[in-house]
Amino acid sequence: MPVPHDLYQDLKRSKEEIQQKRTKDPLLDSLLNKYSQADAEVVKAEEAKSSDEQVTKLKAKRLEVKDKIVRQLGS
User: Fold this and answer.
1) Could you tell me which of 11, 56, 53 has the C-alpha nearest to residue 31?
2) Angle formed by the axes of helices 26-47 and 15-24, to 10°?
3) 0.85 cut: is pTM over it?
4) Among 2, 12, 39, 71, who pairs with 46 as Cys (CB 3.0-4.6 Å)?
5) 73 burial class (0-12, 13-18, 19+ CB within 10 angstroms)?
6) pLDDT reported for residue 66
């Protein structure tokens, strides 16, 4: 059964730390919202047993957003 990806674990930061930064940074907030949406699309596609190509494209989109989040947290 597909499950949502744990972004906080990947970032090696607590949910509280990210939420605190999110309230002060509108771009980070927007990126985190986009990540949540992209992750939900991946889970939905996996549950629907979509083609590997479709799931791979969605995962690439999610990774792109995650990379932007990492850059934003670093700035």
Assistant:
1) 11
2) 130
3) yes
4) 2
5) middle
6) 97
- Please, which residues have CB within 8 angstroms of residue 58's CB and are 6 or more apart in sequence? 38, 41, 42, 45
Q: How many CA atoms lie within 13 A of 58 on its CB side?
A: 18
> Alpha helices of the chain — where are they, by DSSP H?
7-11, 15-24, 26-47, 52-74
Q: Which residue has the tokens 């799931």?
A: 55
Contacts of 22 (CB under 8 A, 6+ apart): 28, 29, 32
Cα–Cα dist 23/37, whole Å: 19
Q: What confidence category does residue 4 fall into, taking pLDDT thresholds of 50, 70 and 90? A: confident
The Cα–Cα gap between 11 and 18 comes to 9
